[in-house]
Design a protein that fits this description.
eleven-stranded mixed beta sheet; 5 helices; about 15% helix; globular; five-stranded mixed beta sheet
């Protein structure tokens, strides 16, 4: 299933998207939001299935929101998870280059206030940063609590998959002691969606194609098979001694093609249109809009 979030008559509701027919079935209010479904386990999914078919709307007539709105904690993220991306930035990290390729996944977090919907404007304040960069990613949502999850059982804990763009401010990312939180946590800068595709719909992550276009120019184009560390490895290492809970969102890294690693560099500006897509998971279309953040 593809679970979407939308507001109907002033109330946030969940829905099931039929992508081929370009429709969304609005679920009864009693089913709850997508956040409720994720935390509700198999019974919640059974309630969704029982409610379909139901009231159906054309996708063209609704505005989808971020599928998730209630976060347990910061968004959990994986850095340097495509070797071509790791190598393209070598020597460009302003003294923050590791001596060698990491032997374990690199983790950081982003504030939940970064999250916006699949067609919302990305906040942009040139007074805050001069280096706004794009990063197309596959995101996942944990559906079952677990700590020290074995790699071979890791995918059993995944509820579903989304598209994300980890829009970053490179100068802020470099300016605060070599850690990335500040340059990754600016409000209203990370589109997420367009819906939450349940895990049963995706058989092979390695074949998913991750792309990012800026103003019609394709700048990132890779597959999940090019990840340095697999999703099961990411979940196993992240959960080692640390409980992952239903509703946690994990980003799995971006491929090469980022703006700061290009020559000449490409940074985002007011009015730019970013299209982020992953095959089988949908597409985000977000306009960069000047917004006062300081």
């Amino acid at each position: 299933m593809k679970l979407a979030s939308l507001t109907v008559d002033g109330v946030r509701r969940s829905g099931v998207v039929n992508e081929s027919e370009r429709t969304v079935t609005v679920l009864p209010a009693a089913v709850g939001t997508v956040d409720d479904i994720v935390r509700g386990g198999p019974r919640a999914l059974d309630a969704v299935r029982a409610a379909v078919p139901g009231e159906t709307l054309a996708l063209s007539g609704v505005r989808l929101e971020s599928p998730l709105h209630r976060f347990n904690r910061d968004i959990l993220c994986t850095g340097w998870n495509y070797w071509d991306h790791f190598e393209e930035s070598r020597g460009r990290r302003e003294g923050q280059d590791p001596a060698e390729r990491p032997r374990h996944p690199t983790f950081f977090t982003k504030g939940p206030g970064t999250v916006i919907g699949p067609t919302d404007d990305i906040a942009y304040d040139p007074g805050l940063s001069a280096q706004w960069d794009y990063e197309a990613e596959i995101a996942l949502v944990i559906g079952r609590d677990g700590r020290s999850i074995p790699e071979e059982k890791a995918l059993d804990h995944v509820f579903g998959w989304l598209v994300a763009n980890d829009v970053s401010q490179r100068d802020l990312q470099r300016a605060h002691g070599g850690q990335w939180l500040k340059g990754k946590s600016i409000d209203a800068t990370m589109p997420l969606g367009p819906w939450l595709t349940t895990a049963d719909e995706i058989d092979d992550l390695t074949g998913l194609r991750v792309q990012c276009e800026v103003n019609g120019r394709l700048l990132q184009n890779a597959t999940g098979g090019q990840m340095a560390f697999s999703v099961p490895r990411i979940i196993a290492e992240l959960s080692h001694g640390m409980t992952l809970r239903a509703g946690d969102v994990i980003l799995t890294g971006t491929p090469s093609g980022i703006g700061s690693a290009r020559d000449p560099q490409i940074f985002l500006g007011d009015g730019d249109l970013i299209v982020t897509r992953v095959t089988g998971l949908g597409e985000l279309r977000n306009r960069v809009r000047r917004t006062r953040l300081t």
